[in-house]
Automatic annotation (TrEMBL):
Coiled coil (UniProt feature): none
Protein name: homocysteine desulfhydrase
EC code: 4.4.1.2
Entry GO MF terms: cystathionine gamma-lyase activity; homocysteine desulfhydrase activity; methionine gamma-lyase activity; pyridoxal phosphate binding; transferase activity
Pfam families, per database record: Cys_Met_Meta_PP
Family: Belongs to the trans-sulfuration enzymes family.
Class of the enzyme per the UniProt entry, highest EC level: lyase
Example of a GO biological process term: transsulfuration
Species of origin: Streptomyces marianii
Top-level taxonomy: Bacteria, Bacillati, Actinomycetota, Actinomycetes, Kitasatosporales
Length: 419
């Protein structure tokens, strides 16, 4: 039986060290170098009474089992390594992994709703499907949308959660986590930290109680594994494990293995891509074809920008950059939120949250900055027939094309500052 998953306190080490060692402390002792993958769905036991006691203990507390998991929907040693490592990086007691980011958010909402706390206060913009899950009330929750300043006033006796993304998808708008946590009082604040990752920001240090990740993005980091994870205190983690057991949104152990491997290069990947992203943000802000650039003060590898021309021309024109939804991979991806990632959000709500029709969201990877800039430049200059989709107004004549430098409407200095 593996024991790496224990939450035994480890000496405080730098993030880069934790990224390659957390969750793997027992490997040398076991004569191993790479983490083993345990694909078992069930675990043998000749002792019925001991097994029954362990099941009862889990049902009562949701705590981690001593010894093997009984059944893979309760726990898995490979996934547990990833959970241990992510908790260490976020500075929390525990973490609980799920099949996807949406499965993770679902479990959080169900934990609170099962306590009768069905009301959620949320700050827009959120990731499109998170917005949809709350707005649809699919899980029996009710949402009040507000801006950070309105959070305190929106809280009711039945409010179970305050939810924010910072930097937010896709505008990269930032919220002051400490101020928000203060506004929440005793209501837990959930911060979706998918964009910043614990490399750039640890929300729990600023007063958040729950940190959510779409592990599909930077934690995995290679566009080949889907997962979600919630980092939190052990009390909330226990409740999440019980919901995970009851509803079944478990992470596959192979995904757990890939996510643990992804964590080991997370600091290096995030820092390298952030340098390139900040450089591209500066170049875009000085480019007359670009109306506005959004880049977070916390840094990161995401850049959003609004073009004067038709954003569809840019998507159609990129050659090195991959036109695709999702983010956080080693290669650079670009997408048009109004058409793709935030299509599910009602048009009025989407626009009010700052997600305009000319906004493009780019996830910067590890390619050389000059190659990326060359590709962006040629895509920004591409002239194609304007394509219209439902809900999109026809661009003004001429506006569908890139604005040549000589006709630039304003000097780069007068463009809204990169932020
Ligand atoms: C992708 C994403 C999610 C959803 O995660 P999945 O793994 O796709 O289910 C949630 N929040 C943010 C910020 C995301 O980018």
């Amino acid at each position: 039986m593996e024991t790496a998953a224990s939450n035994a306190p480890a000496p405080t080490r730098a993030l880069a060290t934790e990224a390659v060692h957390a969750g793997r402390e027992d490997l040398v002792e076991q004569g191993l170098h790479a983490a083993p993958i345990d694909l078992s769905t069930t675990y043998p036991s000749h002792d019925i009474e001991a097994e029954a006691a362990r099941i009862d203990a889990f049902a009562a507390t949701g705590g981690r089992l001593d010894g093997p998991p009984v059944y893979a929907r309760l726990d898995n040693p490979t996934t547990a390594r990833f959970e241990t490592a992510l908790a260490r990086l976020e500075g929390t007691d525990s973490a609980v992994a799920f099949a996807s980011g949406m499965a993770a958010l679902t479990a959080v909402l169900l934990v609170r709703a099962s306590m009768g706390l069905r009301h959620v206060v949320a700050v827009r913009p959120l990731y499109g499907c998170s917005d949809h899950l709350l707005e649809s009330g699919l899980l029996g929750t009710e949402v009040t949308w507000t801006d950070p300043a309105g959070v305190a006033a929106a809280i009711r006796p039945d409010t179970g959660l305050v939810m924010v993304e910072t930097p937010a998808n896709p505008t990269l708008a930032e919220a002051d986590i400490a101020a928000l946590a203060h506004s929440c009082g005793s209501v837990p604040l959930l911060v979706d930290n998918t964009f910043a990752t614990p490399v750039l920001q640890r929300p729990v240090e600023q007063g958040a109680r729950i940190v959510l990740h779409s592990a599909t993005k930077y934690l995995g980091g290679h566009g080949d594994v889907m997962g979600g994870v919630v980092a939190c205190d052990e009390e909330f983690a226990a409740a999440l494990r019980q919901v995970r057991f009851a509803t079944g949104g478990v992470l596959h152990p192979m995904a757990g293995y890939l996510l643990l491997r992804g964590l080991s290069t997370l600091p290096v990947r995030v820092r390298a891509a952030s340098v390139t992203a900040a450089d591209l943000a500066r170049r875009l802000a000085a480019d007359p074809r670009v109306a506005r650039v959004h880049y977070p003060s916390v840094g990161g590898a995401m850049v959003s920008f609004e073009v004067y021309g038709n954003p569809r021309d840019v998507i159609a024109g990129v050659r090195l950059i991959t036109p695709a939804v999702s983010l956080g991979s080693v290669d650079t991806l670009i997408q048009h939120p109004a058409s793709i990632s935030h299509r599910i959000v009602a048009e009025g709500d989407r626009r009010a949250a700052g997600v305009g029709d000319r906004l493009l969201r780019m996830s910067v990877g590890l390619e050389d900055v000059e190659d990326l800039w060359a590709d962006l430049c040629q895509a920004l200059s591409a002239r194609r027939a304007p394509v219209r989709t439902a809900g999109e107004h026809a661009p003004a004549p001429g506006a569908a094309h890139a604005v040549p430098r000589a006709e630039a409407p304003s000097a780069p200095e007068s463009h809204p500052a990169v932020r």
